[in-house]
Specification:
Structural class: mainly alpha
Number of strands: 5
Number of helices: 29
Strand content: 5-15%
Helix content: 55-70%
Shape: flat
Oligomer: single chain
Largest sheet: 5 strands, antiparallel
Radius of gyration: 32 Å
Distance between the termini: 34 Å
Length: 562
């Protein structure tokens, strides 16, 4: 890499890398930027690429990135993003100020702590009162901070009031929310959830209920209006229900359970929860609260009544039917539950729920009917996968080797999970070598993934195809995979394995600098000692010491006892 001034990087980087690099920087994808050694900076970009930058300090001298683009072109968008971040960081650093003659500081500095220590409590309260009157955000923060310790006639109302204030103060003139306004609402909500968690840990369940109900009631109507924070808003509502469900696990007082029951029955009937697709959370909570005959009967009547109203969305409809089925099964009215299921086979979530319930109660005939019915339809991928797993289990139970081979191979090519391979081999063991070659061809047609990479290596090892395994590792150039199978391969191809280690370690150090690279090489050498390749480890150490005497962290790593 030709050195160039960091301040003028735009003049030295091609637009093909400059533009996407600047975009990554602006999206705050550069993380953990730190100086590991003097003038050697490390960063993580887009959560998966490690970037190194060596500066002089004003010029970019060298660098590296784990991505394929950098190894091909000597530059990439991740490297460029790191340069932008580094330039910003260095610009923010203030120049050192010449030391002045030391003056003995006074015993008490003028700080916030010293002010609070000395002023009159009445003066402080008056200041807080006036400041809260002038600054709405400060007033809201004050209320949120101390809401738990202030007692009022209706304690739930104070939590509703805080959320009301947060929402009203965040609206623009056209009633929409600015991004900053949404962030303020989410922060206040998260603060309240934190208070609910603290109350839960102390078994103050009624406080938890007040906070959770306030969040559900106030956040639901605005969820569709949150342009920037809709996911965070939904997450807050889901967390509120989650902590309510955890209360049930702690077996609270009957009076609190009755209050939760009455609240849930009442809120279920409000249209806002259906419009904003929050009603499924109520349906689930309702079925959890229905723990005895009277409540189950009342719940079923309510659900029947709600089924006559518009569900507004597919999710609302499906979750309503699932709740009806669950209550009917709790009441022992399985025929009615089965009728609802069979009338709604076109609804994937309900079909999956019913199939899984059938397997739990070991109703294999019903599970087979439902899974077969589902697999004949066009389903979302995650539901299709789960139904295939059910059908695969049934095929294994029935000794249907043809179907087991078909489904296990299909799931293997989707996931590369080892247990599917074991099921496939058990079902397709006749003419196994030909079948194995066909499987490898089908695997090759799938897209790249780390799971696929690891599976192929494990497959070659399991089937004792050592020559193919060695060639595969050589193609991958993966030190980690080589480590995993080195002990096995050295017994068959010692010279080839030694050559692979030499090539891959030397190449790695040519492309990577810094402490992390040195540490990784140290780990590889330690592994060589562990598997008995002491002669190779000592040879590589000697070569590296002669080649890179100026790389201090590497010399330090090589000098450490392995």
């Amino acid at each position: 890499m030709t050195a160039f001034p960091l301040l003028q990087l735009e003049q030295h980087i091609a637009d093909d890398f400059l533009v996407p690099g600047e975009q990554l920087f602006e999206e705050d994808k550069v993380r953990q930027l730190q100086e590991s050694e003097k003038h050697l900076w490390l960063a993580e970009v887009a959560t998966q690429f490690e970037v190194e930058v060596k500066i002089s300090p004003s010029k970019v001298m060298d660098g590296s990135c784990d991505c394929k683009t950098f190894s091909e072109f000597g530059v990439c968008e991740h490297f460029v993003a790191t340069l932008f971040a580094l330039r910003k960081l260095l610009a923010q650093r203030k120049p050192s100020i010449p030391k002045k003659e030391e003056v003995q500081p006074p015993s008490d500095k003028f700080t916030t702590a010293s002010i609070l220590k000395q002023i009159d409590e009445a003066m402080l309260k008056e200041f807080v009162r006036q400041y809260a009157h002038r600054d709405r955000n400060f007033a809201l923060a004050l209320k949120t901070k101390f809401v738990g310790v202030v007692q009022v006639a209706d304690n739930k109302e104070k939590y509703l009031h805080i959320l009301d204030d947060a929402i009203k103060s965040s609206r623009k003139k056209n009633k929409s929310f600015s991004q900053r306004g949404e962030q303020k609402i989410i922060k206040i909500t998260q603060d309240l959830l934190d208070q609910a968690e603290a109350a839960f840990s102390e078994a103050h369940f009624i406080t938890v209920v007040w906070i959770a109900q306030a969040i559900v009631e106030k956040m639901t109507p605005i969820i569709r209006k949150m342009e920037y924070s809709a996911k965070e808003t939904l997450s807050a509502i889901e967390q509120a229900f989650s902590i309510l469900q955890r209360i049930l696990e702690r077996q609270p007082a009957p009076a609190l359970l009755e209050e939760l029951w009455e609240y849930t029955v009442q809120e279920c009937q409000k249209i806002t929860y259906r419009i904003n697709e929050i009603i499924p959370l109520f349906y689930r909570f309702l079925t959890q609260l229905a723990t005895h005959l009277n409540r189950r009967t009342e719940a079923l009547q309510l659900l029947e009544q709600l089924s006559m109203q518009s569900p507004f969305t597919e999710k609302n409809y499906t979750r309503l039917q699932i709740a009806r089925v669950a209550i009917l099964e709790q009441l022992g009215r399985n025929t009615e539950a089965q009728k609802i299921i069979h009338n709604n086979l076109s609804h994937p979530d309900l079909l999956l729920y019913a199939t899984l319930q059938a397997t739990k109660r070991e109703d294999w005939q019903e599970a087979k009917f439902l899974s077969d019915a589902g697999l004949q339809r066009l389903l979302p991928f995650n539901i299709k996968q789960q139904l295939e797993d059910v059908r695969l289990e049934l095929a294994h139970r029935e000794g249907d080797w043809v179907l087991q081979a078909q489904l296990s191979k299909q799931r293997l090519l989707e996931t590369f999970e080892w247990h599917y391979f074991e099921l496939f081999k058990k079902a397709a063991h006749h003419n196994w070598q030909d079948t194995l070659e066909e499987l490898l061809i089908d695997i090759e047609k799938t897209g790249y993934s780390s799971a696929k990479r690891d599976f192929i290596a494990a497959l070659y090892a399991e089937e004792r195809k050592f020559e193919a395994l060695l060639a595969y590792i050589q193609k991958l150039q993966s030190l980690d995979i080589l480590d995993q199978y080195a002990r096995l391969l050295i017994s068959v191809y010692p010279s080839a394995v030694y050559d692979l280690y030499r090539t891959m370690i030397y190449t790695y150090l040519e492309q990577h600098l810094g402490r992390q690279a040195s540490k990784r090489v140290q780990q590889k050498l330690a592994h060589l000692y562990q598997i008995g390749a002491t002669d190779l480890a000592e040879e590589i150490i000697s070569t590296l010491k002669a080649t890179y005497p100026e790389r201090h962290t590497l010399m330090e790593a090589l000098s450490t006892e392995l």
